[in-house]
Write a structure and sequence with these properties.
Helix content: 40-55%
CATH class of the largest domain: Alpha Beta
Organism: Tautonia plasticadhaerens
CATH topology of the largest domain: TIM Barrel
Distance between the termini: 43 Å
Largest sheet: 8 strands, parallel
Keywords: Flavoprotein, FMN, Monooxygenase, Oxidoreductase
Cofactor: FMN
Family: Belongs to the FMN-dependent alpha-hydroxy acid dehydrogenase family.
Bound molecules: flavin mononucleotide, ligand LXCWX6NK
Strand order of the largest sheet: 4-11-10-9-8-7-6-5
CATH architecture of the largest domain: Alpha-Beta Barrel
Number of strands: 12
Protein name: Lactate 2-monooxygenase
Radius of gyration: 21 Å
Structural class: alpha/beta
CATH superfamily of the largest domain: Aldolase class I
């Protein structure tokens, strides 16, 4: 009954679906709360896989600060503004999205679920949420594209030492219908990750997350080995070619020449880097500290967002990730000027717990929460939202209305 009422928003529809199922004695298949979902994921995953997913770098201060930065900001809702019809849609690089949401690139999903990126791709396609596929995926660029049909997808590039290999990845992504390239800048060295070190666990060393490399003709030619017959030597070449810490801004021009796809740079936190990215032709930047997995002690992603937005202005798109867990987080990042946000660990908890359906549930719940949070803030669309909707308080309860 509720499904067919065109006046009901996605948020209200989702609530009623859940409440009506409850009347028939059916509880939600998966936890609604992301924290509870993470606890369930911990129960079903091997300790080293859960540690890899949930963990961060060093003392995990930056990982925690990503969440604290959201808690420090509070929404000041406006009243009597006719929010009966709401539009949560946004436009990002020419794509119209139903909500300001994309899936962050997350590698090695085979450690979480046997269907890995294919399950995520199907869920993303069903919900119309663009997926950003990691270079370090467990399924290839082509396999994931085939699972998505015409659904929107971007490719994340770990910028390898070899320009020829980079060009090969970009050619494959273009041919497989990926519409933009997100170049991750913050992972040119693997950080000190204490949980993984304690488990003596690096998935790549066990043959996970290397599908795009080992299937690549340039990689195989440069490695000079058949990865199936000589996995040890193939891994050695992978470790050598994965990144190049000597890269500088001067290298970016060559990368741009290697593709006709728009390029976004991920891992930008300083306004000067954001300015430079745009000056050098980037179509966008992703404000991100890699979910606190790289430089422990780095600024919280949300704290870096306003400076980057001010530096970029309307010259390029500013995307955001780091700590998005619910609708209010999306609203706060959007109020600070993000064009859209990337969802990270939560969809992987859904994958671990419930495969494709687990990811679908996470996305449907978050989209519903976004719709309701937007309305309850007194906005009918994200165009009505701005910094004036937020207050910041160091000591929580003393937030003052501007
Ligand atoms: C297990 C794991 C693997 C990741 N792999 C990649 C990757 O391959 N490429 C990339 O650019 N970022 C990667 N990231 C970082 C995410 O894209 C994103 O920046 C981060 O998850 C956001 O933080 P959050 O999950 O706390 O919201 C990874 C994150 C996790 C948790
Ligand atoms: C050699 C470092 C690979 C890291 C790739 C996956 C990733 O980004 C992560 O955070 O983990």
């Amino acid at each position: 009954m509720t499904e067919s009422n065109p006046l009901l928003s996605p948020g209200i529809k989702r609530q009623f679906q859940i409440y009506e199922a409850g009347l028939q004695g059916r509880a939600p298949a998966h936890p609604i709360s992301v924290d509870e979902l993470a606890r369930r994921a911990e129960e079903v995953l091997a300790p080293e896989a859960f540690g890899y997913l949930a963990g961060g770098a060093g003392a995990e201060e930056t990982m925690r600060s990503n969440r604290e930065a959201f808690r420090r900001r509070r929404i000041v809702p406006r009243m009597l503004r006719d929010v009966s019809r709401r539009d949560t849609g946004v436009e990002v690089l020419g794509m119209r999205l139903p909500a300001p949401l994309m899936l962050a690139p997350i590698g090695v999903q085979s450690i979480l679920h046997e269907q890995a990126e294919l399950a995520v791709a199907r869920a993303a396609a069903a919900l119309g949420v663009p997926m950003i596929l990691s270079t370090a995926s467990s399924r290839t660029i082509e396999e994931v594209a085939a699972a998505m049909g015409d659904a929107p997808r971007w490719f994340q590039l770990y910028w390898p030492r070899s320009d020829e290999l980079a060009a090969s990845f970009l050619r494959r992504a273009e041919a497989a219908g990926y519409r933009a390239v997100v170049v991750t800048l913050d992972t040119y060295l693997l950080s000190w990750r204490e949980r993984d070190l304690q488990h003596a666990y690096l998935p790549f060393l066990r043959g996970e997350g290397v599908a795009n490399y080992y299937s690549d003709p340039v990689f195989r030619a440069e490695a000079g080995v058949d990865p199936v017959r000589e996995p040890g030597r193939a891994f050695e070449h992978f470790a050598h070619v994965f990144s190049d810490p000597s890269r500088t801004w001067a290298d970016l021009a060559r990368l741009r020449e290697a593709t006709r796809l728009p390029i976004l740079l991920k891992g930008v936190l300083h306004p000067d880097d954001a300015r430079r990215a745009v000056d050098q032709g980037a179509a966008g930047v992703v404000v991100s500290n890699h979910g606190g997995r790289q430089l422990d002690g780095a600024v919280a992603a949300l704290d870096a967002l306003p400076g980057v937005v001010d530096a970029v202005g309307d010259r390029a798109a500013v995307l955001f990730d780091g700590g998005i867990r619910r609708g209010a987080d999306v609203l706060k990042a959007m109020a600070l000027g993000a064009r859209c946000v990337l969802l990270g660990r939560p969809y992987c908890y859904g994958l671990a717990v419930g495969g494709e359906q687990g990811v679908r549930d996470v996305l449907a719940n978050l989209e519903a929460d976004i719709d309701l949070t937007l309305g309850l803030s007194g906005c009918a669309s994200f165009a009505e939202l701005g910094r004036g909707h937020l207050v910041e308080s160091r000591s929580d309860p003393s937030a003052t209305v501007p």
